[in-house]
Design a protein that fits this description.
alpha/beta, eight-stranded mixed sheet
């Protein structure tokens, strides 16, 4: 089938690569306002050609919306205005806003709201990875509003790519994503800023940083153009988890101030329980 990828970044590029490797795409069209991304996508073989939005949709069977979530909210209704029998899915990290934007759209059924739970700190088409989605989860939200045949076809594509499918409401997704994804990025950004503020010698950071520090601040390299809109759209849930996170940090701070090392031991021991969930 002919596939159009709107937004050829990390996720869009990796999807284009995976679809081709599994023989699911006969041609891939890139639509991207960033001319450099278009050139790189063509040079890397992620896409076969580029077209304008209307032309690309007209000749495609599948449209993948892989742009930052603030742009997706504006662009998705425009895409649905143009489709007839095409299938459309997005890959955004927040779901409520985009679904509100198309709630009453006559072509709502042609759209499947999805979120592959995978990513790296890198962006752009050069960050695309082969086999990126094998063994990963993809969340489909509010599936009851998608046409049954469209939903089944998209689910089949996800399964072929190696994803296991979870279904939930958009509200539940945004809440859970705040706890397991969005807070991780805020913590990483904050930790990086803390170290940069207190440790002014860059050579020292480079020389002393070990695996633990590197893994914790890895996400701090993530693109703000992607993450600020996510935090904006999921503000209430992010604030809720951030308040709890700050509360937990205060407990650790209080233990050290009061030299309550017994309770500090309990806090760390309790945190160890995550190992039973994530071995």
């Amino acid at each position: 089938m002919v596939v159009t990828v709107i937004g050829m970044g990390l996720i869009g590029g990796s999807l284009a690569l995976s679809l081709r490797e599994h023989g699911l795409s006969s041609k891939t069209i890139v639509v991207d306002q960033n001319d450099v991304h278009v050139e790189r996508a063509l040079a890397l073989g992620l896409a076969d050609e580029t077209r304008g939005l209307l032309d690309a949709i007209n000749v495609s069977e599948l449209i993948i919306l892989a742009v930052p979530v603030d742009i997706a909210v504006k662009l998705c209704p425009q895409i649905l205005d143009l489709v007839t029998d095409q299938m459309v899915f997005d890959v955004g990290s927040t779901k409520s806003s985009i679904l509100q934007a198309i709630h009453n759209h006559p072509n709502r059924g042609r759209f499947v709201a999805s979120h592959p739970m995978w990513g790296t700190e890198f962006s752009g088409p050069d960050a695309a990875i082969s086999g990126a989605f094998v063994g990963k989860a993809v969340v489909i939200t509010d599936p009851e509003h998608s046409d049954k045949i469209v939903l089944e076809k998209i689910e089949s594509i996800f399964s072929i790519l190696g994803l296991h499918i979870l279904k939930m409401s958009s509200a539940d997704h945004d809440l859970h994503a705040a706890y397991v994804s969005h807070i991780s990025h805020i913590t990483s950004f904050a930790l990086a800023n803390t170290v940069l503020e207190k440790e002014r010698e860059e050579d020292t950071i480079f020389q002393l940083a070990s695996g633990g520090f590197e893994s914790t601040v890895r996400l701090a390299k993530s693109n703000p153009a992607m993450w600020v809109p996510i935090f904006m759209q999921n503000k209430e849930n992010v604030l809720d988890v951030l308040n709890e996170h700050i509360s937990q940090l205060r407990k650790f701070k209080s233990c050290l101030e009061k030299e309550n090392y017994e309770y500090l031991y309990e806090l760390i021991e309790n945190a160890n329980r995550i190992g039973k969930i994530l071995p």
